[in-house]
Amino acid sequence: MRPSELLIPTPAGLYCPLADIHIDPVRPVARALITHGHSDHARAGHGAVLATRETLAIMALRYGEGFTQSRQEAVPGAMTSIGPVDFRFVPAGHVLGSSQIVVESKGLRIVVSGDYKRERDPTCAGFEPVSCDVFITEATFGLPVFHHPPADAEVAKLLESVRLFPERTHIVGAYSLGKAQRVMALIREAGYERPIHIHGALETLTAFYASQGAPVGETRLVSASDRKALAGEIVICPPSSIQDLWARKFPDPVTAFASGWMRIRARARQRGVELPLIVSDHADWSDLQATIRETGAGEIWVTHGEADALVHWCGTIGLNAKPLHLVGYGDESDVETTSETVDAAQL
Ligand SMILES: [Zn+2]
Ligand SMILES: [Zn+2]
User: Fold this and answer.
1) Which residue, among 183, 258, 255, 166, has the nearest Cα to 219 in the 3D structure?
2) How far away, in angstroms, is 147 Cα from ligand 2 center?
3) What H or E segment, with its residue span, contains residue 258?
4) How many C-beta neighbours within 10 Å does residue 59 have?
5) Running DSSP on this structure, what letter comes out for residue 169?
6) Which end of the chain is more exposed for a tag (fewer CB within 10 A), N or C?
7) What is the DSSP letter of 83?
8) Mapping DSSP to helix (H, G, I), strand (E, B) and coil, where does residue 304 land?
9) Residue 262 in 3-state DSSP?
10) CA of 94 to the centre of ligand 1 (A)
11) In angstroms, what is the span from residue 108 Cα to ligand 1's centroid?
């Protein structure tokens, strides 16, 4: 069997005709397998969803219990057969519940990475490489300029600034699913024990992470009235809120943003970020390369992000590679800005 018979890129997303399922479809389909809960990958309105327990829970929190007509839990590592195709969910290390999906039939194995990272994350299971014939990878940071320093060193910069400026509130923008909770856990690992103050838009997901054992420590919801009293404290909010009027109500705020994009100084300046923290939940350029090599795949398909440079690099080491040009995936900030802005305005 040829790989293109097992998985086909379509406008709705990757489609497996032998099992009649889509992976991370961007429009409503009959049956969907979902790699993780970020809103560009996990959408509401499918007939049936197969995903990990955590991803199903995250979808229910974000969209309501009616996000799909029927749901089935995928146990990591266990095989689910649909027609002649075997599917297996394997941890991707991206956010809580995130998985790669292994698609196998008649001796041909394709691994769909979803989004992934290789750096340790105290809030989710680590990426497990799976050998395969075809590896389908994301390439969010697929350019040589993207090198992520150790996340704990970036968080140390935040805590040093808090120590140096005890009269200022440190406001950290971080995506509401995954990044915010990872930053909190890293702050705890560094020994910071004071309550961490959170924006209302982070409340539900942070409570879910805590219920699943993520070491986020004591968190307190920021109310409109007590912002003036938070001098010297750490506040975590969605990225869109750091530029809002909401952020200006704190005492002499220092604005920070935890993102792989903070490698690009112009991005930080453009967002008015005083303290850029390069903390990413995606593989950087060298981890993309290392992972591709580790899978042993002879063929690489690139779904979204900076596909061209990665495809070119694959060619230079003798791998067959192509961009899939799947649309609808990308940085969660683009998808979430509207609802987060609304949430912020209500506070
Ligand atoms: Zn993601
Ligand atoms: Zn993505």
Assistant:
1) 183
2) 18
3) strand 254-258
4) 25
5) -
6) N
7) T
8) strand
9) helix
10) 7
11) 26
**What pLDDT, on the 0 to 100 scale, is given for residue 341?**
33
The angle subtended at Cα 194 by Cα 188 and Cα 197, nearest 5°, is 90
Q: Extract the tokens encoding 333.
A: 């900030």
Please work out, in degrees rounded to the nearest 5, the angle formed at the alpha carbon of residue 212 by the alpha carbons of 115 and 201.
Answer: 70
CA of 37 to the centre of ligand 1 (A): 7
CA 331–ligand 1 middle distance (angstroms): 8
Q: Report strand pairing: 254-258 vs 196-198.
A: unpaired
Ligand index nearest the alpha carbon of residue 178: 1
For the chain of 347 residues, list the mean pLDDT of each consecutive stretch of 10. 96 97 97 97 98 98 97 98 98 98 98 98 98 97 96 98 97 98 98 97 98 98 88 96 91 96 92 96 98 98 94 98 90 42 33
Closest-approaching ligand to the CA atom of 94: 1
Task: Collapse the DSSP code of 178 into the 3-class scheme (helix H, G, I; strand E, B; otherwise coil) and give the result.
Answer: coil
Cα–ligand 2 centroid distance for 226 (angstroms): 36
Residue whose structure tokens are 């829970």 = 57
Residues comprising the chain, all counted = 347
